[in-house]
């Protein structure tokens, strides 16, 4: 496979963009090799600058549930573009989109639109702190909620400790307000609540997608809900990735659980920068201009992004079997990968919900970040490179989630399984 253009593009980009990329994971740091510079995408495929085609299981890290350049979304955008790009004044479309989301989210009465998942979770935290008049938050090791200071925190020397900044530049005066607990371990959360009487909220990815794919246990989420109520803390469910990906009603629907605040992103913008946070009216009405909690954005509710969101959600609603069909492909893919790996004595843990899936090169079941970290990342890197050479684009890290889009079908999935089998065979005989 010729990738000369990508090599040249990467070298040139590195001269003017730190690491050559505008978001770190794109640099292929944990799998090695040259990141592909993408020229275009159509349906299930992306094409690099050398015109190599890849079956794309990244789908822009989640947003593109209908695949690349979907014609319905594209025509909504073409229409919207003619009316102007941005007004900084309210539009009817914003209410339409918010109503669409609220009608499908069982915990949300009011919602505000922002431009990124980072903004959505950051704003939800500020609101939770204002509503409870408390400062500390509890998050989980391995969960990612964007890169705001309070959330860019990892566990200290053990879990259930006050966190330490996971990036230079995050003041320890801020990270000391973040307690870090272990995913799927309710005792670690209880320990956090014992340690601090000042907890404003617990924030969680209900289907964790940023330590690889690790679903929360149902009992764990219910116990969290109860603990939050007992301690007058808000429960924030981060559906930026799982919303409209795992199912029509997201993880809230799958687990039949209520949050005080919910964050959305990715799919609701159909590939454009759009995200949202919402919840009970009494909490949301604390936002300026009704209340005193400040939050704003020049491009919040941008009409082009909102039009892509409305088109995407309308298309989703028009397809009653969409999530069953996507989940069936995810199931076939993950089982096929697991069987193929087994043929060559490579242990592989797999899981899926709706159109989200993941696989770990790991002999044990993965329930939390400690388990995930036991995975064979060198094996993942080899597998990733071999699949890439065969035209299959998986996430460039073991600790990410894969996404099925509706432009995929059984034949594509079978082709991928066959290529995975060949890759496992090569890895097996290379030793
Ligand atoms: C669960 C979750 N929350 C928040 C974010 C941050 O979203 P963004 O990258 O749009 O800022 C992400 C990004 O991947 C995410 O997966």
Automatic annotation (TrEMBL):
Main subcellular location: cytoplasm
InterPro entries the UniProt entry points to: 4pyrrol_synth_GluAld_NH2Trfase (IPR004639), Aminotrans_3 (IPR005814), Aminotrans_3_PPA_site (IPR049704), PyrdxlP-dep_Trfase (IPR015424), PyrdxlP-dep_Trfase_major (IPR015421), PyrdxlP-dep_Trfase_small (IPR015422)
Keywords: Cytoplasm, Isomerase, Porphyrin biosynthesis, Pyridoxal phosphate
Keyword Cytoplasm: yes
Gene Ontology molecular function: glutamate-1-semialdehyde 2,1-aminomutase activity; pyridoxal phosphate binding; transaminase activity
PROSITE patterns tied to this protein: AA_TRANSFER_CLASS_3 (PS00600)
Residues the record lists as N6-(pyridoxal phosphate)lysine modifications: 266
Pfam families assigned to the protein according to its UniProt record, in alphabetical order: Aminotran_3
NCBIfam families recorded: hemL, PRK00062.1
Protein name: Glutamate-1-semialdehyde 2,1-aminomutase
Species the sequence originates in: Helicobacter magdeburgensis
């Amino acid at each position: 496979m010729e990738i000369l253009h990508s090599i040249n593009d990467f070298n040139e980009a590195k001269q003017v963009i730190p690491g050559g990329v505008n978001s770190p994971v794109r640099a292929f740091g944990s799998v090695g090799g040259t990141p592909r510079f993408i020229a275009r995408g159509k349906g299930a495929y992306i094409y690099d600058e050398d015109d190599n085609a890849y079956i794309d299981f990244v789908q822009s890290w989640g947003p593109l549930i209908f695949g690349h350049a979907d014609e319905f979304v594209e025509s909504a955008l073409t229409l919207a573009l003619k009316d102007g790009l941005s007004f900084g004044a309210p539009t009817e479309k914003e209410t339409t989109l918010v109503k669409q989301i609220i009608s499908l989210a069982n915990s949300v009465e009011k919602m505000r639109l922002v431009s990124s998942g980072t903004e959505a979770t950051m704003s939800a935290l500020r609101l939770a702190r204002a509503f409870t008049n408390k400062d500390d938050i509890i998050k989980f090791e391995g969960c990612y909620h964007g890169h705001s200071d309070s959330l860019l925190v990892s566990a200290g020397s053990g879990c259930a400790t006050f966190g330490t900044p996971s990036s230079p530049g995050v003041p320890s005066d801020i990270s000391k307000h973040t307690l870090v607990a272990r995913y799927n371990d309710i005792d670690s959360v209880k320990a956090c609540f014992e340690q601090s009487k000042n907890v404003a909220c617990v924030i969680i990815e209900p289907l964790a997608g940023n330590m690889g794919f690790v679903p929360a246990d149902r009992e764990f989420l219910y116990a969290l809900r109860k603990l939050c109520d007992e301690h007058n803390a808000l429960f924030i469910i981060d559906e930026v990735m799982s919303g409209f990906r795992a199912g029509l009603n997201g993880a809230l629907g799958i687990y039949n659980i209520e949050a005080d605040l919910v964050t959305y992103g990715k799919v609701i913008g159909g590939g454009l920068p759009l995200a949202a946070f919402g919840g009970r009216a009494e909490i949301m009405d604390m936002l300026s201009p009704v209340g005193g909690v400040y939050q704003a954005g020049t491009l919040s509710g941008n009409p082009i992004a909102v039009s892509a969101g409305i088109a995407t959600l309308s298309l989703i609603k028009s397809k009653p079997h969409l999530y069953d069909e996507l989940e069936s492909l995810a199931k076939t893919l993950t089982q096929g990968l697991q069987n193929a790996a087994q043929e060559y004595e490579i242990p592989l843990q797999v899981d899926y919900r709706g159109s989200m899936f993941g696989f770990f090169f790991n002999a044990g079941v993965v329930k939390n970040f400690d388990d995930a970290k036991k995975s064979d990342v060198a094996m993942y890197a080899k597998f990733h490179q071999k699949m890439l050479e065969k035209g299959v684009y998986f996430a460039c890290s073991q600790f990410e989630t894969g996404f099925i889009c509706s432009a995929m079908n059984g034949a594509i999935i079978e082709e991928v399984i066959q290529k995975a089998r060949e890759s496992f065979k090569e890895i097996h005989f290379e030793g």
